Amino acid sequence: MLTPLQIEAIEIEAWENMFDAASAEFKEQMNMYYVKVGGGICLVFGKHPVVHFNMIMGLGLSEPITKEILQQVEAVYKKANQSTYMIHYFEQMQPANAPSIFEEMGYVVKGGWERIIWEKQPVKPLHTERNITVRLVDESTASTWEKFVLDIYKYPAHDWLRSLWNVKGWTHFLAYENDAIVACRSMYIGKNNLAWTGIDTPVPIVMTNDLVPDRILFEHLQKYCIDNGVEYLMADIEKPSAERDTVIYKQFEELGFKVEYLRKLYRK
Questions:
Q1: Tell me: the pLDDT tens digits for 148-181?
Q2: Residue 196 belongs to what domain range?
Q3: Is residue 266 part of a domain?
Q4: What is the pTM of this model?
Q5: Contact residues for 88 (Cβ-Cβ < 8 A; gap 6+)
């Protein structure tokens, strides 16, 4: 069984790799870097208020969260002149009274992401009459993939995203329906036979209620994991339910995923 530290470490590794892959020119242009604080990491994207690129992960795992650590986090973003950022927190983090420390420092919970995990097992294919196929991004489709993602997200990530298509560890999957791209999802395979998936769009339930393309993408991700020795795949449900009984939970359960914990998103 994986520990929370192992579970979070693969996503942190993926984000570090993603930031490292950006060109020096792009990093300077966007004031983009990361800083290690309190056993975790602060991602900094100083020139644009994108919380996905300005987030803090991994606090409270190798060392407890303290007021002083949160002050260090705030100093990182103050130096970058970036007021938009969020901190991941879940109940397994230390200390047990961490929520009161966040509250004392003026943070409030603004949303959450459910951390889910797939352990290697036979893939359960979806039987559908829709003509959906999946292809890997290559040099000839890298620009098309980038355009599809950024047309939806509107993030200032041109060239940076495209440069990821052939970075070691990354594999990018495109779902086509009748020769038109309808969804995409990326996967990073890192240390210890662990993988994380992100850069997905449209995000299920958040951006679309059509879950079939992402379901089929996941089947291909799982087959890729099996073929490449991956034991565990981490993902997220970005619109959680307190009862954990909505259609997105059912879909991931059918795919063999289990809910591990809810990551609350603290912001000011």
A1: 999 999 999 888 998 899 999 999 999 999 999 9
A2: 119-261
A3: no
A4: 0.95
A5: 8, 55, 56, 57, 58, 59, 113, 263, 264, 265, 266
